[in-house]
Write a structure and sequence with these properties.
heterodimer, A: alpha+beta, five-stranded mixed β-sheet, about 30% strand, B: about 140 residues, alpha+beta, Aldehyde Oxidoreductase, domain 3, four-stranded mixed β-sheet, 9 strands, elongated
């Protein structure tokens, strides 16, 4: 099991009910990690509409989750 | 040098413009994003921006660095507001100085377009009718 902090923003945070949650997961990829969260919280976006960031840098959905890292799920942005 | 900033306070346009002054620059172009009173036909009462601040700072800095590498410009800055804004408030400011206007206009356009596309900032809009919600426009080219 890998311990991770998941960060939720905007509509994902509204759906999850929390801005951050600590989880233990066996998910082999960040995509699988999101899909676990998607089921757990009924999140309103498929992973292909999101980006993922690990510890303040964008990451690849195929990356393996790293112990102790902070994983942020980035919904479609609307700045500017 | 920090060229991209997030701010919870009103953007100081004159000070930003002054930092871009240069004897090497014959041109200055800027863009201001203002809070509009309508969106998709609905009257807007106000809005709020939030960000994944550390990631937004890193991505914004990258974008400004890319602009400096890609366009023959002297310097550039971008500031984006966070927090609550009212109609008419300044939400985002981009400024570019360059030897010539072609690059100044081009880089300015590219910076605001790219900041809007890539930086993890989200708008929560409140409508005159009383409801409010997050904007999450899905772009076809990323499907």
């Amino acid at each position: 099991m890998t311990r991770l902090n998941l960060l939720y923003f905007a509509a994902l945070r509204d759906a999850a009910g929390v801005a951050m949650e600590s989880v233990d997961s066996d998910a082999p990829t960040l995509r699988a990690l999101y899909e676990e969260a998607q089921v757990r919280h009924r999140l309103p976006f498929p992973s292909r509409q999101l980006r993922v960031a690990v510890d303040d840098a964008f990451a690849d959905w195929n990356d393996a989750p790293r112990e102790g890292s902070e994983v942020a799920f980035i919904p479609p942005v609307s700045g500017g | 040098m920090d060229r991209f900033f997030l701010s919870h306070h009103p953007i100081e346009v004159d000070a930003l413009r002054a930092t871009l002054g240069s004897a090497h620059a014959g041109a200055f172009a800027s863009f201001e994003g203002w809070v509009r009173d309508h969106n998709e036909g609905r009257p807007v009462a106000g809005l709020r921006y939030e960000a994944h601040a550390r990631l937004a700072q890193a991505e914004g800095a990258k974008i400004l660095e890319e602009a400096l590498r890609t366009f023959p410009i002297v310097d550039a800055r971008c500031v984006h507001r966070l927090g609550d804004l009212g109609i008419g408030d300044l939400a985002v400011w981009v400024g570019v100085s360059a030897a010539h206007r072609d690059a100044a206009f081009g880089a300015c356009r590219w910076i605001i377009d790219t900041v809007k596309a890539r930086v993890p900032i989200w708008k929560h809009e409140s409508y005159m009718e009383g409801d409010a919600g997050w904007l999450h426009p899905v772009r076809d080219d990323r499907a």
